[in-house]
Amino acid sequence: MxxxxxxxxxxxxxxxxxxxxxxxxxxxxxxxxILNINDLITATKNDITFFHSKKYESIALTTKASFCITTxxxxxxxxxxxxxxxxxxxxxxxxKITKTFYPEAVNDDFDVKVKNINKIKLKExxxxxxxxxxxxxxxxxxxxxxxxxxxxESNVVIGNNCSIGSNVIIRNSIIKNNVNILDNCVIGKxxxxxxxxxxxxxxxxxxxIVIINDNVEIGCGSTIDRGSMSNTVIxxxxxxxxxxxxxxxNKIGDNCIIAGQVGFAGSSTxxxxxxxxxxxGISGHLKIGNNVKIAGGSGVIKNISDNSKVMGYxxxxxxxxxxxxx
Length: 326
Known about the structure:
By secondary structure, this protein is mainly beta. It folds into two domains: 12-105, MurE/MurF, N-terminal domain (Udp-n-acetylmuramoylalanyl-d-glutamate--2,6- Diaminopimelate Ligase, Chain: A, domain 1, 3-Layer(aba) Sandwich); 115-324, Hexapeptide repeat proteins (UDP N-Acetylglucosamine Acyltransferase, domain 1), CATH 2.160.10.10. It contains four helices and 37 strands. The chain has an eleven-stranded mixed sheet with strand order 8-11-14-17-22-25-28-31-34-36-37. Strands 7-9-12-15-18-23-26-29-32-35 form a ten-stranded mixed sheet, with no helix packed on it. The protein has a six-stranded parallel sheet with strand order 10-13-16-21-24-27, with no helix packed on it. The radius of gyration is 21 Å and the shape is flat.
């Protein structure tokens, strides 16, 4: 995957990359050049990837990466064409290598290069309120609105007929046509990504982006984190209520309705036409099928198949929940 918004400081010779990243490796690899780090699916030849859970076994078997950071117990599941770099903590090693490629992606300090919209040419393309600030590499389509005190930091692309509310912060995002983002939202900041490592928490660089497709509405006070390595995606015609949190790498399908105060942990996939009641929680690395209905206050900790209705904690089939709680 070519990174749209973050500078890749590679390529690196594999041995130099591991040394710079402080990743111990007893093997030598004949000065093979590595272009990028990517996930198991998108990695191609001359990329490095990572494999840390048997949950991704089927993907690992087909990865095209030249190198993979993994554990001894998982290494046999990788293809012979992939060189194995055996480590004790895959996620910490991956974070260190990603930081070597993309050092600017670790922190999300405020954008010091923003300018008042009155001082740039974009003022002729949009209708805007007071105190609107715009960063570098920001693009707008036609017929867009921006509310008071909103900041579009660096690396934002907005399509046609979009409305951005007041007190909104957006960065590292692609927003397509006919999208409404209501007041006090934060979109495209880094996610809650760090790994405990002895006496410190090692922060993971977030090099993905947020993609919001056509005809989406994001309610007041909602937060959508950009992806850590893949992207966070909101499908077309999906509506989020107020105070919804979508963490890094989530893929939300088309035509979904998500009520207030719902929270998603990272890296889950939501199908199309899903309805979620208020204050439900979706755990990480799950697959929620199409046409699923999740009752308010539920806690989802397992995959849910298509056309299911679930309720409770842990969430279970609705009829079974009612029977168990008569």
